[in-house]
Amino acid sequence: GDTFRAAAVEQLTIWAGRIGCDIVTGKAEADPASVAYQTVEKAVESNADVAIIDTAGRLQTQTNLMQQLEKIRRVVGKKIEGAPHEVILVLDSTAGQNAISQARGFSEAAQCTGIVLAKLDGSAKGGVILPIREQFQLPVKFVGLGEGIDDIAEFDATAFARALFAQ
Prior knowledge:
globular
């Protein structure tokens, strides 16, 4: 669904090849909701268990782009009742307090169901996730620990708390 960023389609096509999954792409600057609809259509036709729709990065203050997320929700829901079943917000663990504003904006527009906390492989500890969890009831589902294929891990609250409060 990222039809505007240069090389986005190429990057995701490479990753799809690496993990052995199909990919649905749109033309440059196509409506991301149309790409999302085509993705769900292909998933239904091929009897796929999961369809992942990746959208372009955006700021929560970009009203037109936030409305685009709402549109994606609507068109996907027209094809599969109750879809999307999961909406994951990817938060940069280095974002600090701005992550709270991001969580608020995205939760309202996209009705997020969980979080991936990215870039925990650096110096950031991701402590901002605590007030986000408290305010928005969004569970952290995964953490990003690098840029490799095996660098996404299920969130382990005990290990996270230990690392957060370690000296």
